Amino acid sequence: MSLEPLDSPDADVIPDHTPEELEALLGDLVLARDDHLNAPGFVIRPDTVQETLSILKEQAGYDHLSLVSAQEYENRYESIYHLKKFDDPTQEVSVVVPADKDNPVSQSGEAVFRTADWHEREAYDLVGIEYDDHPDLRRILLPETWQGHPLSLDYDMNQPQIAALPAHVNPIQDHHRDDESDTMFLNIGPHHPATHGVLHLKTVLDGEQVVDVESDIGYLHRCEEQMAQSGTYRHQIMPYPDRWDYISAGLLNEWAYARAAEDLADIEVPEYAQVIRTMGAEMCRIAAHMLALATFALDVNGDFTATFMYAINDRERVQNLLEDLTGQRLMFNYFRLGGVVWDLPEPREEFFSKTRDFLDQLPGNIEEYHNLVTSNEIFQMRTIDTGILPPEVAKNYGATGPVLRGSGVDYDLRRDDPYGYYDELDWDVITEDGCDNYSRLLVRMQEVEESAKIIGQCVDLLEDWPEDERTIQANVPRTLRPDDDTEVYRAVEAAKGELGIYIRSDGTDKPARFKIRSPCFSNLQTLPEMANGEYIPDVIAALGSLDIVLGEVDR
Amino acid sequence: MADAPAQLFPEFLVDTFGLPGVLGEVVAALIAAFVVGNIVLAFTGVAGPWAKRKITAAFTDRIAVSRVGPFGLLIIPASAVQLLAKELIVPEGVDRPTWDLAPIILPASALLGFAVIPMGQIGPVNLHLADPEVGFALVFAFASIASVSLVMAGYGSNNKYSMLGGLRAVAQNLAYEIPLIVTAMSVVIFAGTLEMSGIVAAQSETLVSIGGFDIPAWYALVNPFAFVLFLAANMAEIGRNPFDIPEAPTEIVAGYQTEYSSSYFVLFYLGEFVHIFLGGAILAVTFLGGPAGPGPESISFLWFVVKVWGFFLFTQWCRSALPRVRIDQLIEIGWKGMLVLSFANLVLTAVIVGVIA
Predict the structure, then answer these.
(1) B327 and chain A: CB distance < 8 Å anywhere?
(2) Which member of A334, A490, B78, B323 lies 3.0 to 4.6 Å from A326 by CB, making a disulfide possible if both were Cys?
């Protein structure tokens, strides 16, 4: 690591590679090219995954495994490792790993990227690819007794899942008695005041200290990917993203789908619509971060803390604005491919003045939170230097969003992979290098202020926008049929981090494969790193500082 | 204030109704205890279902109970009926006599403490049950029985969260009872007596006179350092924020209470509230001049109520505003910080009193 400030030329920086140079670097490992819209793709043999990934990571600087997507074709299975660079996420490469149709075995990439652990378990669970050399290849979303793999082609969804009751694993049944050790096994959740939804933590305690913690997820799995695959691009998919991260981050999620689908169908979004999108998305970010602050205060302060109600109050004010804009408070369904569904509410001046009123009183409220929460000495005792997540570990787990920025990594897709209107506006990416629970909270609170800056600039722009240039939607055909076998992976900076969508089209008006890269899914994976060796209250605080939404983890 | 102390409540009953002999004294004592016990229970009745909600709501810009009766006050009987009508769930594998006794011991121990608390006068009636020579030691002894109940509940529930809560309760009470009592001893050095009435009387002397207005020698004014120390230790003793870690709902669900429902749950809650009021009463007697206040002696009960409810309000304020410390930090504050400070305070007080007196 260099001790120099960030803007000085770093000797360790690996130069960017053209696809041809990468192909040369990988040499014989590459069997063929299978380029995607967003990145060059290299087809490799299923037993050379680790070798390929480590060359790309060590020698070419692709240090971010954003997503592992898996699917079944008529003649083969296929896993795709979508790689990026934390320094420049526009540098992307896809590693395409076909596996045999009858014996779908593929080498695990877990040894190179820790984050592949859960991603490959999900691929095994839903698609049915088996990963060789995987440390713990079990189902992750579905129960162990599930018959078949729901996203495989021959899966019969009409066949009832028959498993005798005793065969079902009752996660809280085991006593885990061990005469040798002095540890205690404790189930935290699935129903527990601090799990922020239905999450089950299998915890091993030594007194009050945590020896091991393992997350058990899938309680809120709703087949979101499959539902998206059975809807048409133009209108039927857009309502679903609101239901992933349902903590009022709806517009941010909708943007993830819109960005991927617009790239896939080559749709240009009018500037006016981009400004409205940017403003709405940042309102959602404020609402989401307010709830993060509120629930974190619940976890650390106790369940009658005033901070919770104060932050919820501020979130309500943003939601009133969002309701004026979209007609909805939670499930907005406001974006359309090529723009937004309708223009700002009339009278426009009233909406602008309401928004400005909110922005004007926000700094005072943030000040109050700082007085009440972050400058409280007991709060600092509880959160500083607990739940440590070093930057290298965070990167290895594919953590993104405030969790990564709280570990001092300067990575924000809004700036690094610009979309919408962000690159025209004046705002900053917030980082804190404490790597602890406190830093993650500070990042969120400062991001609220940055979002307010963005909204303020958008309001000014929208107010002065000439009346005859207010195009809210591009001209998009009624039915979208992207070309056969086109693949795209696009991500946006959602409230919790990098929310990506992978789509493969097959020439019809519905996606052949729709894969969601959930930031919470990857962030939650870091919990054992933060919690092991700490006390129970720190595990709760660490979990709160990750700010997970189980709707997005389980999809 | 130089009058002879008013008669104790049972003696007053004996004299007023002319109850003869030992039997009369027993009957008078029972009646007196019944009255005092009900006053305390009425406090908790108002505090639990109504005042607590209203206070928390006021801190968080809400309205809270307002639909049932004037100011929502009829929520008190409504909640009582609702709580008692619920099913008492007895989990499998609980340690029966222990599990059943725990919710009785907690409110009983806290109520016992009120036996020696001078609660002031209403008209001619002095609400003070007994005034033994060791009253001050007795009240702490009674209050400490509560931790036994918490351990019983934690152990008897056959639940890991309860067990953790019980263990935390013991660790916390051990760490904070010693500083609490050592700090209280500094007051005994000032007053020179363990008698509750003596400690109150000692505080009725005038400390300074400003413009003809007498400031009484309340120990909170004489030794504010000890007052703050005592207040903090008291919060830990009664398990309120920032020291509510035996319950810590977001960590260990509800600690020792996790498995209790219906009337047992009510008894636990009752016990906790009586405990808060006992904590307030001890604080009032030790540092705030007991029931003393401006106006005639005959309304001093009013001042007692104000002080005790003031303490209750303070606990609710802390609950709304303060984070909870971690168990290891709590132990550290108790053993490494408050114990040392309380002994320093004791030695210092002893030296000052010894030199001056």
Answers:
(1) yes
(2) A334
